[in-house]
Amino acid sequence: MSELVKNAAGRVVPTEINGRPGVPYMGVAAYRPTGNKLAPPIRSCADYPLDGNKVVGSLREALERCELKDGAVISTHHHFRNGDLVANPLWDTLADMGLKDLMWAPSAAFACHAPLIKYLDNGVMHHIEGSMNGPLGEYCSAGKMRGLGVLRSHGGRYQAIQDGELPIDVAVIAAPTADPLGNANGVRGPSACGPLGFALADSLYAKRVIVVTDNLEPFPCIPWQIQGQNVDYVVKLDKVGDPAQIVSGTTQVTKSPDRQLIAEMAARFVAETGIMRNGFSFQAGAGGITLSFALYLKELMKKAGVKARFIRGGSNKYLVDMLREGFTDFILDGQTFDLDGVRSMHEDPRRHIDTSPFTSYNYHGKGNFASMIDVVMLGATEVDVNFNANVVTHSDGALQHGIGGWQNCLFSKCTILAVPSFRDRIPVLVDKVTTLCGPGELIDVVATERGIAINPRRTDLIEAARNCSVPIKPIEQLKAEVDRLTGGPPEPVALGDKIVAAIKWVDGTVIDSVRQSRFP
Amino acid sequence: MSELVKNAAGRVVPTEINGRPGVPYMGVAAYRPTGNKLAPPIRSCADYPLDGNKVVGSLREALERCELKDGAVISTHHHFRNGDLVANPLWDTLADMGLKDLMWAPSAAFACHAPLIKYLDNGVMHHIEGSMNGPLGEYCSAGKMRGLGVLRSHGGRYQAIQDGELPIDVAVIAAPTADPLGNANGVRGPSACGPLGFALADSLYAKRVIVVTDNLEPFPCIPWQIQGQNVDYVVKLDKVGDPAQIVSGTTQVTKSPDRQLIAEMAARFVAETGIMRNGFSFQAGAGGITLSFALYLKELMKKAGVKARFIRGGSNKYLVDMLREGFTDFILDGQTFDLDGVRSMHEDPRRHIDTSPFTSYNYHGKGNFASMIDVVMLGATEVDVNFNANVVTHSDGALQHGIGGWQNCLFSKCTILAVPSFRDRIPVLVDKVTTLCGPGELIDVVATERGIAINPRRTDLIEAARNCSVPIKPIEQLKAEVDRLTGGPPEPVALGDKIVAAIKWVDGTVIDSVRQSRFP
Q1: Chain B stretch 1-20, residues whose beta carbon is closer than 8 A to a beta carbon of chain A
Q2: Are strands B499-504 and B510-515 parallel, antiparallel or unpaired?
Q3: Whole-angstrom Cα distance, residue A506 to residue A411?
Q4: Distance to chain A for B65, nearest Cα, Å
Q5: Nearest to A353 among B36, B222, B369 (CB)
Q6: What is the distance between the alpha carbons of residues A387 and A417, in angstroms, rounded to a whole number?
Q7: Residue of A42, A362, A369 to mutate for B, most B C-beta atoms under 10 A
Q8: Cis bond upstream, residue B223 (ω within 30)
Q9: CATH numbers and ranges of domains, chain B
C-alpha cells in the first residue's frame, strides 16, 4: 500500500496510484506541470495501404495486429452511453485472445457494461480508470477491484492522456459513420450520437487506434471528428449502438414542483443580477432541473429582448429550439443528449460547433472554453457549508457517478449548483462532503427550493443580488432549515479503511480518495 | 563542411544539415522512422487569462513575452502568398529587439519578402528553411546564406515539424479572422485567403504561438482552423494581407495553343484509359495547363455522364463551377487560389472540406489523401528519360521555386507531369535532371505538346492506353524530337562546389542538394 498524505484540501490521498506517482492536490490553480506532452511513435505511410483502405475482417484481427501484451491499456468512449454495443464484445475478444491484467480506460462505463465484471473477477481486466456509473461503481466501492479506480473529469481525462499519465496502447473508437481510411463522425448513421469528442485524445495519443462502425461510407466521411490519419484499422460490425439507449435518461424536464422552483429561482437570479445580457453565454446540458432552468431563462430572455452569443450543450430539443428561434448565435456541442440535438447538429453545421474535451475543458492547454462561460448550472450529490461539493459518491459513501465535465465547468464566471436541499429525507447540504470533487472557492451559488445561497467570497454577486426577487440566504441558514426538516444531520457513515478509488483534480493532482463502502 | 555521400538515387548529399544529421535518401518507401513525435511543453490554464482574452498591445509585446533568444526558430505561413504583410514587420521587430542568428522557417517565401535579405546580410537572420521563391532563392543560390537552405514539400514540412527535425520556438500565424482566445480562420475578413492549413503544424508543435489578425471578432470565431487552445497571444494589426496579391498569379487558363494541346491530350488520356469513371477523384490546382485540363476534363465528364467523388483543390473559379454544377460531391481544399474559391468555401461549408498538410500529405502519419487520388496533374522544370523530375531549379541551376505539395502528390494512382517539351529553346526533357525532386518510379505519365510518354513500369497503363486517340510515344523518342528542334541537349551548366541547399524527400531523408550557381 502506498503512503497516505493530507493534501491542501485536508483530504487523505495516496501518493502512489496503480504504480504511478500521485501528486496531492495543492489548490485550485497552484500546481504547475513540468515536462512535455506524451509523444506518440512516429509512423510511416509506407506501412499503411496507399489506397486508404484499412478495413480488416474482424475486431479480433485488428486487435491481433496491434500486438497487445498482458497489462496493456485499452480505451473506449461513452458517446453511446447505456446503448454501447462495442465494449462488451471487445472484452469478450480480449478474453478469448488469452490476455490478462489489462487496464480499461473508458471515458465512462454504464450499467450496460455490468457483464464485464466477470473479467475483473477472472483476471482479464486488472482495473478501470474512468467514470464508473452503476454496477461497476458498486464493484469498485465494495473493494473488489485489484487496482485503484481513478476518476477524472472529461478535461482531466484529456489532460491525463495528453500528459502521459494515462498512456493508452489501443483505443477502440466506435463510430456511427466512418470511411475506410478511418475518418469518422457521430452525426449520421443508425447509431448517430452527435460528436465523438470523448475519443479525440485517444485518437491522438494511443499507440494504436481501431475505428469500429456499422455505417461504412466511401471516402471522404465528413465531418471527420476523428481523422483517419490517426487510425490504424477499421472494422465493420453489424451494430455499434442501440439508438433507444444512446439518448440520455436525463433529458426530461423535471415535473417536481420543488425542482421547478429551483430552476425558476436560478433563472430569475441570473436575469436579475445582470448575468443575462446581450452576448452572454450559459451552459445547460442534461438533467431535469437544468432543462427547466433553460426554459425559464428563455422566457426571461424573450421578455428582456436578450440574445446569447453561445450556449454550451449537450444539445437537446430545448436548446435546439432556442437556436432556431434566434435566442443564441451558436450552440457549442460537447455531446448530444437527444435525437433533436443529433439531427440539428447534422442539418445546421454552421451554428452547431463541435467541441471536444481539448477545446472545452483541458486544463493543461492554453486556456479553454469552460472559464469563459458566464453561467453554468450543475448538480451535486452533496454540498457543504464551505460550498465544497461532491458528485461521485452518495451519502452512504458508495461510488455511483462519474465526474463528467462537472469539475471543468466550475471555472465558469458564475457556477450555480442547483440541488434539492434533501433527497429521501437525507440532507444534501452537509457539514462536510463525503468525497471532495469541487473546491468551494469555485462554487459561487447554491440554489435550493428553500432559497439561494451565495458564496461569501463573491461579494460582487452578493451586491448584484441585493434587489433580487428570490430569497437569498446564508448557506448555514439553509442548512439549519434542512436539518430541522430532516431531523438533524445524518449519522456519519462507517466506511472501510481500504482506499478503492482516487479522485483527480483537473490538473492531474489527487483531490480526494474513496474508501471501501459497505455497499451493496 | 559536413561529409558528402551518394544516396540511393546516386545524388551527392551532405550528411549534416545546419548542425543536425541528414539521412541520405534510401528509396521511395525504404526509410522507416524510429522514435517519437515532438512533445511540446505541457502548459497550464493557470498561466492564461480565464476570460479567454489573450490580446496584447503589439507584436513586439507578444514577441517579448515569448522570451526569444539568439538562434531561435521563427515560423510563418504563406497563405497570403505575395500579399503577405506580416513577415516583413515581424522581422523588423525581431531586428529592433536586437536578436541575432535566428532561423526563419516559413512554409514559403515570396518576392514580397525581398526586403528581408538585409537581415540575412546583417546577421539577424541566420538562414531559411522553407520554400524560397524569387529573390531569396537567388540569394541562397548565389551562396550568400550562412546556413543551408532546406527545401521541403508541404507534407515534408509537417513531417519535419512533427518529428522534431524542425523545432519551432515561435510561430507567428497571420489570420484573416480571429477571436481573442486565438481561434482563427482564413475564410472571412478583408484578407480572406481560404484555409490556414500550412500553419497547422506550427500551431500544434511550436513552443509559443502568436496569432496576428486585422479582423478580430467576438468568441467563437468559427471555423477554428487554428485552435485558440494552442495559441499564446493575439495581436491586432491594421492589415495582414493585400487581397489583390493573395490570389495566385497562376489562376489564368493558358492561352498558349501548345499548352492547351497538352491539357486536352492529358484530359483525353484520362478519359480514354478509364481513369475517369463514376466516383473517381482528381487533383487540379493552380497553373495554366492544369486549369485548362480541368475544363477539358469537365467536358469529357459531361459527355460521358461521369461524376467525381472529390476534387483536390486549391479551389478556384473552375473547380467551384464544377461543384455547383454537380460534377463532384466534394472539393478538398488545401489552399485557395482565387476569390471565387474563398467565397465558395465560406458559403458551402458542407461540400468544401478544409484539409491540411497533416490530412493530405504528411508521410509520417497513418496514411494520407495524396496516395488515394486517381489522377493528378503537375508541372516540372525538367524531366529526364527515367521520368525523374525537377521542380526547384531551372536548367541554369538557380533555385527558383519551392516544392509545394508536388512531391506528396506523386503518390497518386496516376501522376501526370504536363510540360512543354522545351521553354525558351531549352529542352524540358533531358538526360539527367539538374536537381532530383521526384523519383521516376512515381511519375507515371509525361504529357507534352508532342505526345504523351507512359512510364514503362506502368504496363497496366500502357495496356489501358492501347486504343487511346492521343499520340503515345516512348520518352526517348519525345526527347529526340525536342533535341532536333532545339539543336541538341543543352551544354551542362557550370556550378560551384559549394552546396547551398538540401532537398528533402517526403520522409525527411535528403534526396538531392543544390550547388552554388552563377546566378544572378
Answers
A1: none
A2: antiparallel
A3: 10
A4: 14
A5: B222
A6: 9
A7: A42
A8: yes
A9: 54-129+166-246 (3.40.1080.10), 257-493 (3.40.1080.10)
Strands B281-283 and B73-76: unpaired
User: What Å distances lie between residue B501 and B131, B151, B153, B198, B264, CA to CA?
Assistant: 11, 7, 14, 22, 36
Q: How many CA atoms lie less than 13 Å away from A145 in the CB half-sphere?
A: 33
Return the residue of B nearest to A52 by Cα: B372
CB contact under 8 A, A44 and B363: yes
User: What is d(CA B78, CA B75) in angstroms, rounded to the nearest whole number?
Assistant: 10
Composition of chain B by helix, strand, coil, percent to 5: 30, 25, 45
B487 touches chain A (CB under 8 A): no
As given in the structure block, the three cell numbers for residue B310 are: 472529390
Report the alpha-carbon distance of residue A304 to residue A437 in Å, rounded: 36
The H or E element containing residue B155 is: helix B154-162
Instruction: Give every CB contact of residue B347 below 8 A, 6+ residues apart in sequence.
Output: none
Does ipTM exceed 0.85?
yes
Q: Say whether residue B232 is in contact with chain A using an 8 A CB cutoff.
A: yes
- Residue listed under C-alpha cell 461503481: A137
What tens-digit pLDDT sequence spans chain B (520 residues)?
A: 579 999 999 999 999 999 999 999 999 999 999 999 999 999 999 999 999 999 999 999 999 999 999 999 999 999 999 999 999 999 999 999 999 999 999 999 999 999 999 999 999 999 999 999 889 999 999 999 999 999 999 999 999 999 999 999 999 999 999 999 999 999 999 999 989 999 999 999 999 999 999 999 999 999 999 999 999 999 999 999 997 887 765 667 888 999 999 999 999 999 999 999 999 999 987 778 999 999 999 999 999 999 999 999 888 889 999 999 999 999 998 888 888 888 888 888 889 998 999 999 999 999 999 999 999 999 999 999 999 999 999 888 889 899 999 999 999 999 999 999 999 889 999 999 999 999 999 999 999 999 999 999 999 999 999 999 999 999 999 999 999 999 988 887 888 999 999 999 999 999 999 999 965 4
DSSP 8-state secondary structure symbol assigned to residue A336: B
- Grid cell, residue B202, equals 506550427
Give the bridge partners for B438, in sequence order: B389
Rounded distance, CA B191 to CA A64, Å?
50
Residue B120's identity, in one-letter code, is L
Distance CA B425, CA A116 (A): 75
Question: Three-state DSSP class for B131?
Answer: strand
Residue B439 contacts A where some CB pair is shorter than 8 Å: no
Contact between A186 and A178 under an 8 Å Cβ cutoff? The reply is: no
pLDDT in tens, A92-131: 999 999 999 999 999 999 999 999 999 999 999 999 999 9
Angstrom distance (rounded) from CA B61 to CA B56: 7
